[in-house]
Amino acid sequence: MTGKIYRNLLYNVTRLIENPEWLLMRNIGRFHIIRNAIKKYLIQRHKLEFSEFLEKLESQKSHIFLEIRVEEIIKSLDGEGIFQGLNLPEYMVKDILEFALTTNCYGENKYKFGFKFHQLEKAEQYYKRKFLTARYYNLTQECPGIKELENDSLLIEIAARYLRTKSLHIGTALVWNFPVNFQFEQYSVSESSYHYDLDGYNFIKFFFYLTDVNLNSGPHVYVRGSHKNKTLIDQFLRGRTSEQHLINYYGQDNIIKICAPAGWGFVEDTFASHQGVRPINQPRLMLQLLFATHDYNLEHNDVNPSLLQAISFEDE
User: Fold this and answer.
1) Cα dist. 270→186, 273, 277, 290 in Å?
2) Which positions of the chain have pLDDT values less than 70?
């Protein structure tokens, strides 16, 4: 416990020095009354810029998402905090998955734990550790399909109309979640838990499954309506709470487990309570795109290639 307190203190002191604006947001942005006041201020301040931004978007058409009604999506986001059905075309799923299978990913977000997906078992033996997750870096430069999504006019418009300001793409994540035997001591208390994100005062995320997801392969779970209605204790504790607490407050019907085939996409306000269930018998690959009103320069996946270290096995 002492070690955890020390790490948290060191983390906060470091962030205070590097990015005090971000640290302030993380501490006060969890409270509805403060959050809503700042959002209202930002919307009013950028009202003219927002109108001009939408006018430019009207002349652009998405080549990825066809016959999508933006008004329906915004209505669902405002009321429930989520909309499902922004599905990727088959060719794009194939291209991004091929990229993921042929490019080094990095275990536990560490630059020094690089390996290719099919080498997972050998990499764990080499590094002498089990990996819960692995992610990719420099996605915009290395994967044309992801770059196309980041610049898609429909996603930009959905983000802008929900945020009610000019939307900025501030981060992309492509992440594997692996099944893990929790008999390993280092992961004995590392199970998934409900939480909510604090990436800004006004932000939204798009998610796309790149592998089939069922109850045993790590479904994303979302608490409908919790983006606007949190208990005071959840605002203080950032929602690190039990499922039963959420069921008691929001109702069982509002706990949504998203099981769907590869290509299934959804957009959500992740200020709501949510979690990624730990896979049981097969890994899950998911793509996430983050749009916000303000960029704190902490969500980018661009990394100097010289910092990335990966193991290569000669027999493969």
Assistant:
1) 28, 7, 15, 10
2) 1-17, 181-192, 239, 314-316
Using the structure block, give the residue that is written with the tokens 């209505």: 75
What pLDDT score does 190 carry? 38
- Could you tell me the CA-to-CA distances from 20 to 16, 184, 297 in Å, in that order? 4, 37, 12
CA distance 277 to 213: 11
Angstrom distance (rounded) from CA 270 to CA 259:
18
Burial of 205 (0-12, 13-18, 19+ CB in 10 A): buried
Instruction: Name which of 27, 37, 32, 15 is nearest 271 in CA terms.
Output: 32
What is the per-residue pLDDT across 10-63, written as a single tens digit (0 to 9) for each? Answer: 655 666 667 899 999 999 999 999 999 999 999 999 999 999 999 988 888 899
Cα(9)–Cα(20) distance, rounded to whole angstroms? 14
Q: Which two tokens stand for residue 262?
A: 């590869």
Contacts of residue 13, defined as CB under 8 A and 6 or more positions apart, other chains included, come to none
* Residue 6 amino acid letter: Y
